[in-house]
Specification:
With 162 residues, this protein is of the alpha+beta class. The protein has one domain (3-160): 60s Ribosomal Protein L30, Chain: A. It has helices at residues 80-97, 117-131, and strands spanning 3-13, 28-38, 50-52, 59-61, 105-113, 138-143, 153-160. A four-stranded mixed sheet has the order 4-7-5-6, with helices on one face. The chain has a three-stranded antiparallel sheet with strand order 1-2-3, with no helix packed on it. Strand 5 (105-113), helix 2 (117-131) and strand 6 (138-143) form a beta-alpha-beta unit. Helix 1 (80-97) runs parallel beside helix 2. It is globular and about 40 Å long.
């Protein structure tokens, strides 16, 4: 089975060479995350089918980003797109705190508390737009309920440490 690969360049610091992770100035290099598109699967989907992380890369696993504002309130009650925007804002903050950005993401899971496929598509369109050309593998799920009262959208991610 053939595969098409899109490489995403990622900055990294190597501890063994005194990089930032090791406390020194050291060597900063580039790693490539491979976004894989399987030639025997449809190319009509807006995401890669797999991603390959370079050996030795450090991974960031986020908790599910929720549509919670700075006052611990669920925002945009009843508005899937509005909640998805807040979720993506919060996901970016969490990634940045860990030293990563959206283009470092190698996989996401998008949860939507709805049985209506149109709601799933609405959330997906917001999430997908935020990632731009970086189309890491993702799973989109309709679920019965999420953790906060009124919560409709949640996204978790795995990224490579920059």
């Amino acid at each position: 089975m053939g595969r098409l690969i899109c490489s995403v360049r990622i900055r990294w610091c190597c501890r063994e060479f005194g990089g930032v992770a090791g406390g020194g100035r050291g060597i900063v290099g580039l790693m490539s995350v491979e976004l894989v598109r399987a030639s025997r699967l449809t190319d009509a989907v807006p995401y890669a089918y797999a991603s390959v992380v370079p050996a030795g890369a450090r991974l960031v696993h986020t908790a599910g980003a929720c549509p919670i504002d700075e006052h611990d309130r669920v925002v945009a009650l009843g508005d899937v797109a509005g909640q998805a925007r807040q979720v993506m804002d919060n996901l970016e903050v969490a990634l940045q705190a860990a030293g990563a950005v959206l283009t470092d993401v190698v996989r996401t899971t998008v949860y939507v508390a709805s049985t209506d496929q149109a709601d799933l598509v609405t959330a997906w369109n917001v999430v997908r737009a935020r990632f731009g050309d970086h189309d890491a593998p993702s799973t989109l799920l309709g679920v019965t309920v999420l953790g906060y009262r009124g919560q409709l959208v949640e996204v978790d991610a795995v990224a490579v440490m920059r």
